[in-house]
Amino acid sequence: MEKYKANSLVLDDEARKNLFGSFIDLPSGNTHYSVEGEGEKWAVLVHGYATPYFIYDKVANGLIKEGYKILRYDLLGRGLSERVKGPYTPQLFASQLDEITKAVIGDKSFVLFGTSMGGTITTTYAAAHPDKVEKLVLLAPAGMVFKAPFYMKLAKLPGLGEFIFNCFGAKTLTKNCAKEIIYSGDKVKEDYMEKFAFCTQYKGMPACTLSSLRHTILNFEEDTEGYKGVAKAKIPVLVIWGTADKTMPYYQAETMKKILPEMQLITYEGSGHIFLYDEGERTMKDVIPFLKG
Prior knowledge:
Elements: H1 13-16, E1 22-26, E2 29-36, E3 41-46, H2 57-65, E4 68-73, H3 90-104, E5 110-116, H4 117-128, E6 133-141, H5 150-155, H6 160-179, H7 186-200, H8 205-217, H9 220-233, E7 237-242, H10 252-259, E8 264-268, H11 275-278, H12 280-292
Parallel strand pairs: 3-4, 3-5, 5-6, 6-7, 7-8
Antiparallel strand pairs: 1-2, 2-4
Helix pairs in contact: 2-12, 3-4, 4-9, 6-7, 6-8
């Protein structure tokens, strides 16, 4: 959105005073989060590569109606969480998840959701803390080997990657993500783009997403280890995937099924990468039976 100039504002303590939600200083970095619902059961929602935690709006509402208390937060480097220095690895994100759940939930176990890159994060965490994860819901997850598009290959090149992301990263991410909204009308797309663009105002996101691409999204060998750990721990897993997903292609589900042979797979014919935002009510109709089962 033109009214929000990308990479133009500093996200510091003074700025946080006027922003929505809650903030907490964790060892890994200052984290923007929200706790919703009055239930006794906990669900933790981990978003993906670019879109902040608002991507779970419809899923969160559905879980609250089912008696869950919700913790959702922005990953480091995007949304309104701190743009920390250093490589954005699965271990960094898993540490953030471990730290915020301990701070907010304590020793209780919970249901864990991960979408897109959140699939790699949640499986990395769950493999290390299987006692904390009751069930795992993966929505169009990253973590398997896939044929990287040309722009991702370019982004891996030192110097050129920085140039591309600094010049075009924020606007390109906003528009490309919105293209994955297939069934909702223009109003939903506009709301999505405005919420996304609001967060891209704060400096540092292009560098953080570039680092995440290099060190997490395209770190296939390490990403897969988390999935193997989940299989070993026998954590119940539900995977939902759309066949028209342009970001994390559906064919990866075949590889995932080999690593997680007991996972439940639900296929959405013609749905895009962010169906949880586009088709939230439909998503919850499939998630709730799995959680109750």
